[in-house]
Design brief:
CATH class of chain B: Alpha Beta
Radius of gyration of chain A: 20 Å
Strand content of chain A: 15-25%
Structural class of chain A: alpha/beta
Largest sheet of chain A: 7 strands, mixed
Distance between the termini of chain A: 36 Å
CATH superfamily of the largest domain in chain A: Thiamin diphosphate (ThDP)-binding fold, Pyr/PP domains
Strand content of chain B: 5-15%
Distance between the termini of chain B: 38 Å
CATH class of the largest domain in chain A: Alpha Beta
Number of domains of chain B: 1
Shape of chain A: globular
Number of strands of chain A: 12
Order of helices and strands of chain B: HHEHHEHEEEHHEHEH
Oligomer: heterodimer
Number of helices of chain B: 9
Helix content of chain B: 40-55%
Strand order of the largest sheet of chain A: 2-1-3-4-6-5-10
Mean pLDDT of chain A: 89
Shape of chain B: globular
Mean pLDDT of chain B: 96
Low-confidence stretches of chain B: none
Chain lengths: 343, 283
């Protein structure tokens, strides 16, 4: 296993992980807490950072932490006004951070496209893909990467664990330009050591192997590692790449993986339409076509599950997002490579 | 009114007439564009840039400048004519409107056109962006004003009312909205398509100070309304300006068909007679 990764961390359940760090309560609270701590630290150091919200984020905590109340702006349940005001703030040199649930991006899409991204204004979208929970399909965003990825110049990243989350927010807020960070809403094991050298736009190879490459990010990364364990038992050495930046995508890493392993599988908690899979396929068809498969939500709407232990697992299974699905896709792709049935 | 003011009004009126001619000529050359709303709004935009707003054409990004957001972005020919005359960019650029590579896009683009404060075009978005700018002014302790011109048809967009509610909630008195109430939209009368009246009551109910400008194409009244608007404290201000669509060209006035089409050559000849400017030339 490569340096900077906690060996076997992905075999530990998130419940065990939380027990170990002494955190009681839903994983998303832990994530949010870390996110807020990071944002506050950055905001204290840079007075241009301000916070806009359309409900759902706690301005008091920012104020309590010493951020001036004028820098924390609640807009009520009005997302369109919120993102547009962020545009005006960014235009005047401030760095507005808009943090809410990912599914609310879509309803402000035209505003984001026309009034923020057209001018690459420095707005930070920290969107929690609330994910696989009680809210159901309306509250689970599985298309956000698809509709954000086609926006010129935008930076899109998604952390795979809390260590990467902190590094990514820090780097993303220092970068100048429209930025979308897709934050997980369900528990993920901590994969990385604190000294993990995160780099924007640079894929990180977690596991070496030459039989097939699994390219993944966010909440699917640890499952890809579980899949690589299963494959290893069958004698298949899978390379696992963390594609933490979806746009601009690390083309070199994809081409190199295609050249060296000859088979690619992508895995994402997102629709297979327009997501990481298609982004990778785009690079492959232009440079190094090899057998490929995509694990992701297959052109379907999401639905509810119970927001407790195991609730996610049921839907992950129903929507083909498990480690077993990644294993099956890997085997299929390796077989295609062996039989050279590319026409 | 003093003699000085009379001279000022006369000057503004002459400028507005020149801009009317330029608007029609540039749309004619481009082959497409929106003359109707450009002509209804031009008197107010002229007064903003030549009377009210602090701007510096040599330094378009001067931090203390007043901001103007043209939320009804399709009437940008009016804004372009004013910006060119002010010296933000050479006048020749006007005749490249809507051409590939032009600094003058079919809808305002802040990255291409010096002096354009905000890219607009998707209706209903400008007010909220202006709200953000006004908030930023407060955060940065600047005393600039943000003016935002909306079309009357445009306020059928729900987004406008989100911005309106918020601006009043935050008592943004550095924000002045201007409603170009020309009563026509593409499909016809606003009152037939989606009635806006009682429009003043709506803004009042949302917590805005409403200034009703009886004739938004009368320069004396325009100047007066802008003066009043910038003196009000404690709440956002909206000037509801009754205007005439396509004002200044008799056969075009109050006709929805001139919302979004260039004049034909024969129509243009007639319009030129009404907007005769000695020595006028399209370079």
């Amino acid at each position: 296993m490569v340096k900077y990764v906690r060996d076997g961390a992905w075999r530990e359940s998130s419940e065990e992980f939380f027990k170990k760090i002494g955190f009681a309560g839903p994983a998303r609270y832990y994530t949010r807490q870390l996110m807020n701590q990071t944002l506050l630290k950055l905001a204290k150091a840079d007075p241009r950072i301000c916070f806009v919200s359309a409900e759902g984020s706690p301005p008091e905590s920012y104020e309590a932490a010493g951020i001036h109340r004028y820098r924390v702006m609640g807009f009520g349940i009005a997302e369109a006004n919120t993102v547009l005001a962020a545009s005006g703030l960014a235009k005047e040199g401030l760095i507005p951070v808009y943090s809410t649930m990912s599914w609310l991006l879509g309803r402000s899409y035209n505003n984001i496209f026309q009034s923020i991204c057209t001018d690459n204004l420095n707005v930070k979208f920290l969107m929690s893909a609330r994910g696989w929970a009680g809210g159901g399909g309306s509250h689970h965003e599985i298309n956000d990467i698809a509709f954000m990825r086609c926006i010129p110049q935008i930076l899109i990243m998604a952390p795979a664990d809390t260590v990467e989350l902190v590094k990514m927010i820090t780097a993303g807020l220092k970068y100048h330009g429209a930025t979308f960070i897709r934050i997980f809403g369900q528990p993920v094991p901590n994969l990385f050591e604190e000294d993990y050298p995160f780099q924007m736009g640079k894929a990180f190879t977690i596991r070496k192997g030459n039989d097939v490459t699994i390219i993944s990010f966010g909440t699917e990364l640890w499952r890809s590692l579980v899949a690589s364990d299963i494959l290893a038992k069958e004698g298949v050495e899978a390379r696992v790449i963390n594609m933490n930046t979806i746009k601009p995508i690390d083309e070199d890493a994809i081409i190199k993986a295609a050249e060296e392993t000859g088979a690619i599988v992508t895995a994402e908690d997102h629709s297979v339409i327009g997501g990481l899979g298609e982004a990778v396929a785009h690079v492959l068809v232009k440079n190094q076509p090899v057998p490929m498969d995509m694990v992701g939500v297959r052109d379907r709407y999401s639905q509810s599950t119970y927001d407790k232990q195991g609730g996610w697992a049921i839907l992950e299974k129903a929507y083909n997002l498990t480690a077993d699905d990644i294993v099956a896709a890997s085997q299929k792709t390796i077989n295609r490579k062996k039989t050279k049935n590319i026409k | 009114m003093s003699i000085i003011n009379k001279a000022l009004i006369g000057d503004l009126e002459a400028k507005a007439k020149l801009f009317r001619r330029e608007i029609l000529e540039m749309i004619l050359k481009a082959g497409t564009g929106h003359p109707g709303g450009s002509l209804s709004a031009i008197d107010i935009i002229t007064a903003l840039y030549y009377y009210k707003m602090k701007v510096d054409p040599k330094n378009p990004k001067w931090p203390d400048r007043d901001r103007f957001v043209l939320s009804k972005g399709h009437v940008c020919p009016a804004l372009y004519a004013v910006l060119a005359e002010k010296g933000f960019f050479p006048k020749e650029a006007l005749w490249t409107l809507r051409q590939p590579g032009s600094i003058l896009q079919g809808h305002p683009d802040m990255r291409k056109t010096p002096g354009v404060e905000m890219s607009t075009g998707s209706l209903g978005q400008g007010l909220s962006v202006a709200v953000g700018m006004a908030l930023a002014g407060r955060l940065d302790k600047k005393d600039y004003k943000v003016f935002c011109m909306m079309g009357d048809g445009e306020i059928q967009e729900g987004n406008i009312w989100e911005g309106a509610m918020f601006a009043a909630h935050k008592k943004l008195d550095n924000l002045v909205g201007i409603l170009d109430r020309n009563r026509l939209q593409i499909d016809g009368s606003t009152e037939d398509v989606m009635a806006l009246e009682p429009v003043a009551d709506k803004w009042k109910a949302f917590g805005w100070e409403v200034l009703e400008l009886k004739d938004g194409n009368d320069m004396i009244q325009v100047v007066d309304a802008l003066d009043k608007a910038t003196q009000i404290k404690g709440k956002p201000i909206i000037i509801i300006a009754d205007t005439i669509k396509s004002k200044g060209v008799s056969f075009m006035e109050n006709k929805a068909e001139f919302h979004g089409r260039a004049l034909r050559p024969d129509e243009m000849e007639k319009a030129r007679k009404e907007l005769d400017i000695p020595g006028f030339k399209v370079s």
